[in-house]
Specification:
By secondary structure, the protein is mainly alpha-helical. It has helices at about 10-20, 25-30, 35-60, 70-75, 80-90, 90-100, 105-110, 115, 120-140, 145-175, 200-205, 225-250, 265-275, 280-300, 305-310, 330-345, 355-385, 400-425, 425-450, 455-465. It is found in: Cell membrane.
């Protein structure tokens, strides 16, 4: 690779921050009150750092396209590689509904109608109608490139900046509000409690997607700068998230947090500072555009893994998942996933928006836990099956002690997150989440057991047309 294509440490840090930065997680982090500090530190040590470091070694060792699917396939075989690709795809079914659920409150606040924004039927309608519009646009245009250029500004940078500026001004004016979610401080409030354990998954998975940073290792000027860049990006994101969550928790009255409504604190900031409410309306509109563009970027991204496995003959050829248009979009894959997302969205027929939001978040979390467990096992297994493979970036200079330490930390984090998520969800929600996760994990294993040579022949015949 030419030196012109190499990226510096500073550029890498910027990429990392843009990849994991989101204001959608701020209300959930704020809802944990003073315990947000513990949960975020836990998320970094037992989740974000281990998976980042593992992905760095994976990506330097296996530089072909494929990401987690390639890593697991190399370490555990094609069956589990296919399962990984499948899980990367199906997690967007509940995940995109969770993200899209912020559109209802944002659009309601854009027109100054907060009651409409918190109406579950309006939220349901927004998710289904807007996601289908996004789907149709993605079938016709290269929306991913457009979304990548503008979505991060509307969905991340501008909202973060507005929140911080207004929040600090409000905090300076009022100080700590004892009647807020934050409330008065005592050292005992820093220790996790049963009331806030339900937020562990959502807070930990603020960093979901950080494993994809590993793909940049081959392009870095110095591969050893990878860990420095990851740590810097994580520290910066922890500070940004804590600062925002802290100032938000200080203005939202205790017991009134709206997890899907990121405009709620902006409205409260306006009232405290005596600023016009049109600021909140404009904020909502910009954030809604950001969510729209970010959703658009996700429509085709995860589906690429399914297109790839379809080309490899791992899914029934009659599904037509290998068929794509001139911009590389597979119509059958996109329409299938949008239909499934619509079905998951029907959960918003239930009136308790906060509970539905958490259930969707937690279901996505459990699917990711299975995926991350496979990555962890593949990582440590490759140390023994391919000990002499070239690793430009390696965890630990020699031996496997460092690799085992990070693997154990990661697996502990995965199981802790999964167990707490199910245990705090309630019996009905917990059973539903586990059933969905088990079914979604078993399906690719069943498909693999019925694999037919004709699937690959059909896929190759299509590519050679």
């Amino acid at each position: 690779m030419s030196s012109n294509n190499k990226i510096s440490l500073g550029t890498f840090i910027g990429i990392g921050m843009a990849m994991i930065a989101t204001v959608r997680s701020v209300p959930t982090l704020a809802a944990a009150s003073w315990q947000m500090f513990f949960y975020l530190i836990f998320a970094v040590i037992f989740f974000a750092l281990p998976v980042s470091i593992m992905s760095g070694e994976f990506s330097s060792m296996l530089q072909d396209a494929g990401g987690p699917q390639l890593w697991v396939r190399t370490g555990l075989g094609s069956k589990w590689g296919f399962t990984t690709a499948w899980l990367l795809w199906v997690q967007i079914f509940p995940g995109m509904v969770m993200v899209a659920s912020t559109l209802g409150p944002l659009l309601g606040n854009t027109i100054g109608n907060q009651v409409l924004g918190q109406n579950h039927w309006f939220t349901l309608a927004c998710i289904i109608v807007i996601y289908w519009i996004i789907t149709i646009l993605n079938l016709k245009f290269d929306m991913a490139k457009f979304a990548g250029n503008f979505g991060v500004w509307f969905g991340v940078y501008i909202p973060f900046a507005v929140m911080i500026i207004m929040g600090i001004a409000a905090l300076a004016k009022t100080g700590i509000d004892v009647n807020s979610v934050l409330g008065s401080f005592s050292s005992g409030k820093l220790i996790p409690s049963v009331d806030t354990l339900k937020y562990v998954a959502a807070i930990s998975f603020i960093f979901t997607g950080i494993e994809t940073l590993g793909v940049y290792v081959p392009r870095m000027k110095k591969s050893n700068d990878f860990v420095k860049g990851v740590i810097f990006a994580l520290v910066a994101m922890v500070i940004l998230n804590l600062l925002n969550a802290f100032i938000v928790a200080d203005v939202v009255p205790k017991g009134s947090t709206e997890l899907t409504n990121i405009t709620q604190p902006i409205i409260l900031f306006c009232k405290i500072l005596g600023w016009p409410l049109w600021i909140a309306n404009v904020f909502s509109l910009l954030a809604a555009v950001g969510v729209f563009l970010q959703l658009s970027g996700w429509v085709t991204g995860p589906s690429q893994s399914m297109i790839q496995v379809a080309r490899e003959g791992l899914v029934p050829s009659k599904w037509g998942f290998f068929k794509h248009n001139d911009i590389g979009v597979a119509r059958n894959v996109i329409l299938t996933q949008t239909t499934c997302i619509t079905l998951f969205a029907l959960m918003y027929a239930l009136p308790d928006i906060n509970s539905v939001f958490l259930m969707l978040t937690n279901t996505t979390t459990l699917l990711y836990c299975v995926l991350y467990f496979l990555i962890a096992i593949a990582f440590i297994r490759l140390r023994y099956t391919q000990p002499n493979a070239k690793r430009p970036y390696r965890v630990g200079k020699s031996g496997n002690v460092a690799a085992w330490i990070w693997t154990i930390l990661f697996i502990f984090g995965i199981f802790a997150i999964g167990i707490v998520t199910v245990a705090t969800a309630g019996i009905t929600n917990g059973i539903a989440m586990v059933v969905i996760t088990v079914v979604m994990t078993i399906i690719p294993l069943i498909i693999n057991s019925h694999k037919n040579d004709q699937w690959l022949k059909d896929a190759r015949a299509y590519e050679n047309k």
